[in-house]
């Protein structure tokens, strides 16, 4: 009995050790691990190395036949999003509330030990005293203008007598201090309203839509037919690299589709097509993030592209398409 | 943050003060007679307590109204977020149900998780202002991707 237990304990220990070492060894990002694990000799050379698309399920002989089930073409679509880069703007109420809270905290705060934090006679102490005097003036100026004027004149007189020493000290310290430059939240792309730019609307989520060379239903998410012996994630990656170029650093959010859309082909299209048995298509959307790069149109399948917010998409895609896909997208 | 040494020093000082003994210039236990240690101890232990907040009835009503409005706004924001997430989840659930009905092979692959999946390092933390180079429009590789570093 005890020997059986001992072997069981040993087995579990060995297993746990094995997994621990395996995870330690393979702590590299999934993208590199997956690329190294590609067993197929016919692994597509055009597959972007940086993407995390799995290649382990590819067949040895890659087929280019389209997957058709129940006279519906299975299509993989890509919802590529550029996540926000900066925090959202505060609403007027939020700004007012934060100002109110700051003033409340300041008014009811404990006494500040200035003699502890500032060295006697230092520039920082002088600046602090100046700030306090200004605050006092502002507080009392609201109540009585005469009193404020008197205090202001006295403080200015005091300042004038010490001007020569103060200015040189201040200038010296100011010269040593580095000025922090903050970049503008509104970029050039915002001002020009360049919808192809990825620097527009930095606080919002932008989604990629592409334009097909036709009149109706021109704008949509990039999509393409899934091939036999291919999975959804691979199909999406392949279609994106074919239609939008390989200059995009993409990351696919798992293998689970986030939405689907079913539509039937127009009758004349079905009649004239090479496969008249196929009556429509079923699109499964896969989610991806873009971290760098830009779309490069191939001018064959797509002729134009745009990075738009959820609200702006209404102006591009057809109403029924928007209604079908809007719930997949972030409001902000 | 009060060491036993400092606590006993404080007790000794308060007892001495209560007894009417005058405070010595250098203090009872300042290291090497350094006055800065007394200042530090004073700031840490003898600092005056925060004064109690006194608001008039009008100010109190005003404050309460503001706080209620803030809570209401936050509640509405959270509700919107939750509803948005619920809509997304419903879309995902319907898509997966459809996929299961369509193709068992595709469905099976979609439900199996990647074994050593990790979050990408490029997922950026949001900041107040953007960086100097806002977006890296990296140049397309002229050669095959294998030659890129």
Structural class of chain B: mainly alpha
- Tell me the number of helical segments of chain B per DSSP (H or I, 4 or more residues long): 4
Please, how many helices of chain A?
Answer: 11
Greatest interface and its participating residue counts: A-B, 73 and 63 residues
Element order of chain A: H for helix, E for strand: HHEEHHHHHHEEEHEEHEEH
Major sheet details of chain A: 9 strands, mixed
Question: What fold name stands as the CATH topology of the largest domain in chain A?
Answer: Nucleoside Triphosphate Pyrophosphohydrolase
Low-confidence stretches of chain A: 18-50, 146-161
Distance between the termini of chain A: 62 Å
Shape of chain B: elongated
Describe the main β-sheet of chain B briefly.
Answer: none
Strand content of chain A: 15-25%
- What's the number of extended β-strand segments of chain B? 0
Order of helices and strands of chain B: HHHH
Q: Which CATH class of the largest domain in chain A?
A: Alpha Beta
Radius of gyration of chain A: 32 Å
User: Got a strand count of chain A?
Assistant: 9
What is the terminal separation of chain B in angstroms? 52 Å
Note the beta-strand portion of chain B: under 5%
Can you characterise this structure?
The complex is a heterodimer of chains A (332) and B (149). With 332 residues, chain A is an alpha+beta fold. Chain A has 2 domains: 228 residues, Alpha-Beta Complex (Nucleoside Triphosphate Pyrophosphohydrolase); 87 residues, no CATH class. Chain A has 11 helices and 9 strands. In chain A, strands 1, 2, 3, 4, 5, 6, 7, 8 and 9 form a 9-stranded mixed β-sheet that branches. Chain B is an all-alpha fold and 149 residues long. Among the domains of chain B are: 42 residues, no CATH class; 54 residues. Helices cover 54% and strands 0% of the residues of chain B. Chain B is built from 4 helices and no strands. The C terminus of chain B is likely disordered. The interface between A and B is large, with 73 and 63 residues. Chain B: InterPro entries: Ribosomal_mL40 (IPR019192), Ribosomal_mL40_fung (IPR042831). Chain B: Its main location: mitochondrion.
